[in-house]
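pinned: reference chain
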Amino acid sequence: MARSLKKGPFVDDHLIKKVEAMNAAGDRKVIKTWSRRSTITPEMIGHTLAVYNGKKFVPVYVTENMVGHKLGEFSPTRQFRGHSSKVEKVAKVGAAPAAAPAAAPAKA
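pinned: its structure tokens
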């Protein structure tokens, strides 16, 4: 569900204060933040925000196209390693009968 237009976008106070202070000073340092829930505002354009993903800080350079999105969208928390390939499946199926012990020949 979307946030009410009357309330406006949510941005943590400590984060917006840091961005405004850097805009006033003209600095462009990296700002570390744990606030993945904050919405990107036009004041943040041109800044690099290091967003925590649960393991490390991922640097996110804010551009115009990102305004209105959440910071967490640009710092993935999971790394997809891919599905198993068809070659691996064939190798497992082909290896299973070969791994079975061979029947001993019957002596007459």
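why pinned: The radius of gyration is 26 Å. The CA atoms of residues 45 and 63 lie 5 Å apart.
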